[in-house]
Each structure stands twice: as structure tokens, then as C-alpha cells.
Amino acid sequence: MKDLRILFINPCLRHGAKLKILPVGLGSVMTYVRQCGYDFELYDIDINEPDDAQVESFLTENQFDVILYGSIVTHYAWMKWLTHTIKRHHPETITIIGNSVAASCAKVFMDNTPADVIVHGEGEMTCVDVLHALRSGATLDGIEGITFRQRGGKIVKNPPRKAGDINLLPMPDWSLFDVPAYFSHSVGTSFGSDKADAVTMPVSTARGCAFRCSFCHFVFWDDPYRHRKPDLVLAEIRRDMELFGANYFNFWDDLSFASVRQVERMLDAIEESKLEFEWSAAIRTDLLGREKLPTQKRIDIAKRMRDLGCNAVGYSLESANAEILKMMNKHVERDFFLEQVEILREAGITSNVSVVFGYPIETKDTIKETFDMCLQAQIYPSIGYLLPLPATKMYDYALENGFIVDEDEYLVSITERQDLCVNMTTMGDTEVLETIAEGASRLNEQLNIGLSESSLIKTGGYRKHTNKKTQLGDSMPKRNENDFSFNYSNAEFDMSNGTAS
Questions:
Q1: Which of 9, 115, 136, 415 shows its CA 20 to 30 Å from the CA of 101?
Q2: What confidence score (pLDDT) does residue 188 get?
Q3: Whole-number mean pLDDT of the chain?
């Protein structure tokens, strides 16, 4: 049995972002790996933001037996570059890649990079099993939850790993990261906080989502929706308040609360803990809007949420058009969404809402319908375009209808949901862009928001990339630039957790 020199890499998805969030999924994986007896180093590109030349120099000068990293699939181009770069300088180094950047398109990633192992779903136990095998010289054949490349080059996909009990996982050991550096990028910038002294930390309350929208892919796509016991969440919050002085917590999940009962259990635990902190969460689009409970009961729950620290929640209807919602597989109703907005407003909780334009049946009329709904709700949303992601129904639709011809080429080209990367409507690109820009400008004026024209769709310059010729001779965009708009499901960018990530 040999010792392994192990490196974890935390990629930088968005260079220049004002907000930096400690990586929940990566932190969980690293903590579990450390608990299982492995030492490792961390190269945190996200917080330090070295350029590509510096990254390559580090990889050239430092040799590791195993390197583990991951990201969301919109970071495909840079992750492809990173994998080629590692292997070009150290061919014997084993690369282990997690999250949707590889797991959602394993065959494409394997066919177009020299990657060794792809982790599907949760990374903690799977990564440890792979490390055990590498350390002992055993085969990877029996390890669940991976796609891997055999020494002869054959690509093998093993059976999936059954989702584990997330209540048995250790809370992330944030001492593995430069916490003060992350705090310097979080004070006063937490979602919904108006406090200049907000010290923000993430905490995971759930994994996965209870729904399967046709445009959305998350890390735990094939796993059941699971939430942590409230007392464990509060124990982690207490620790982070005592150790780091945190006073604002982002419940960093694809879906923090799928039911009112879940909310009530968390509120009971917060009240019992006597802890005082502010927090934000991701909730069902109609959590407090459905008629299942009397209106006053829902208002009381929202007010109790606010009294116990919640000042912002994220959710999305995505479209006001019934046919588009059906194509999205959203299973929500416009009226429930509108009532939820009003209930939260009455309670003093900020609603961070997103919409998606560009479904194949989208027209100028359906775009106007969605903006009219936002006006009725008196809310300005985060605006995005439909971005077909691997392992989703809309990706299959794009393949079947010729909108995606070469998957690798498409994945290299995509950036963010705030860019029109592929247009599947019957309208031309200019018509789509101008119609949405006009609707956003009109809504901005009607609601007196005061956004500049350049920030109506909060791109922050997502189209700007660092381009550099690679060893393969192609010019590949490496990173997205600047900040991102509110979107929990897209904000996850680490080894075991979306997202957003």
C-alpha cells in the first residue's frame, strides 16, 4: 500500500465576482476524505484567482498522484483545458472529476479529454473508495458511482451508487479554506441582507430537488430529495457563529424547503436553539401560495420565518404561459406564485425570482405575458435564456431537432443562462433579444427600479473570456467573468453539491 500525494482544486467559475461563497460540496468531500485518513493539498483558484498561465505553472512545478476537481457544466471549456493541462505535464497523474461538468455528459467528457475517473452524484464515499483502490493498487471495477478509463483505454460506467444518509456526514471543516479571504468577499453582499456588517456563510439543509424541470440538471438528479435534520443544521450554524463570527447564513441548496412542514420543523429548531442570525433559502415556487392551507396560516408561517431571521427566499415560476410551464414540467400555477409573492411581501421577506425565456414555443406574446406577470407581482426578476444542459429533456430536444450537432463543440461554446447560447424559438436571435430587452426596460421603468440598460439582464460580461491557444490548437473560452445574478440552482459549483452552486 503506497502513500498518495493528493491535490484538490477549487476552480473559479466567475473571475472578478464580488461575492465568493465557501464551496459546500467540495468542503464536504474534503472533510470526509480527511476523516478517512488521507492528507492532501488544496489549490483554491476561486479565492486567489490566478490566471491560466499561473495555474499551468503550478501544475508544471508540482506533481501529484491524484488530482480531484469539479464544477457545473457551463464551466466545461475550462475544465477540459485543465484536464488536458494536467495530463500534458504529468501523464501518470490520476484525475477525478465531479459535478455536472462531467457527470451529466460522461461519455462526451471522456471522449474529449484524457480524464481518468468521473464521479456521479455524491462525492464523499465514492472518492474515498477510489482513493482506497488507488492506494492499494486494486481495480476500480467494483466501485459504484463512477465512469472510468481502464489502462487499455476502454471507458467503463459502473452501476450507480445508492444515495446515502446525509445526516451521517460530518459538517464541513472550513479550516481547510482561507475563511477570512472568503469573508472579505461576502460582507454586505449576502442575498437579501441590507447589513453592511453581514458575515455570510453557507450551510446545506438538503440535497437534490423534489422536481424534474425539463431545463434543469443538478448533481443529485438520480437521487431522492433529502433534507438534513434541523438540529444538525443548527449545530453547524452554532459552530460557525462561535468560530467565525458568522451572522448571516445562506441555506445553500437546490431546494431548501419543499413543504410547509419542513419549514415549521426548521423554525421550531431555530426557536429552540435561541440563536439569532439572518438567513436565506430556496423554496418551492408555490410553497406559501397553495390553497391547501388557509391564507392566514400561510401568512403566519411567513411572518414567523421573518421573526426567526429569514429575510430572503429564492424561487422561480420561469414563465407565465401555461403551455410553456407544461413543457418545463414545472407543476405550478401562476396564481399560487402571485399569492406567495404577496404573502412574503406582507411578512417583510424579499423574493428573489427568476424567469427563463426561449422555449421552442416562446413568442413575443408569451414573453410579454411573463413580463406582465412580473408587473402584476411588482417584482423584477433575474432574467435568463433557456440553456439546454446535458441529461435534461431540453438537451435531448436540442439534439433531436438539430440545434446541437456536435456536443463537445456546443459544451465548449456555452457560457451562462444570461447569454443566448442557442435559440430554439421560431424567432430570429435579434427579435428574441430585442423583445426581451424591451420588456425588461419597460418593467424597469414601470417598477421604478432604476437599473441601467446594461444591467437589465445581469450578465456582468459573461461573454468575455480569456482565450488562449491550447496544445490541441483550438481557441477555447476558459472562464466566465464577473458577478452572477441570483439563481440557487446554478450557483452550485463544487464536487458534490449544484445549484444553485
A1: 136
A2: 53
A3: 88
Three-state DSSP at 424 gives: coil
Q: To the nearest 10°, the Cα dihedral for 259, 260, 262, 263?
A: 130
Alpha-carbon radius of gyration of the chain: 22
Question: Looking at per-residue confidence, does 87 or 460 come out higher?
Answer: 87
CB 356 within 8 A of CB 417: yes
**pTM, rounded to two decimals:** 0.90
Lowest model confidence (mean pLDDT) among 330-344, 454-468, 469-483: 469-483
Work out the number of other CB atoms within 10 angstroms of the CB of residue 360.
Answer: 16
The CB density around residue 418, as the number of other CB atoms within 10 Å, is 23
Q: What three-state secondary structure class fits 188? A: coil
Query: Distance between CA atoms of 499 and 501, rounded to whole angstroms?
Result: 4
Calpha distance 50→30 (Å, rounded): 22
Helix (H, G, I), strand (E, B) or coil at 368: helix
Other Cβ atoms within 10 Å of 3 Cβ, number: 9
Comparing CA positions, the residue from 343, 347, 252 lying closest to residue 289 is 343
Share of residues in the chain with pLDDT > 70 (%): 88
Cell numbers 435559440 correspond to 423
Helical H runs in 160-246?
A: 179-183, 230-244
Buried b (16+ CB within 10 A) or exposed e, 63-85: ebbbbbbbbbbbbbbbbbbbbbb
Strand runs labelled E in 252-322: 278-282, 310-318
Instruction: Report the range of poorest mean pLDDT among 17-21, 231-235, 345-349.
Output: 17-21
Instruction: Give the integer Cα–Cα distance in Å for 137 and 410.
Output: 37
**Cell numbers of 178, please?**
482561507
Residue that wins the pLDDT comparison between 43 and 458: 43
Average pLDDT over residues 425-431: 97
Instruction: Cell 472578478: give the residue.
Output: 16
Distance CA 273, CA 208 (A): 26
Asked if residues 120 and 51 have their Cβ atoms less than 8 Å apart, the reply is no
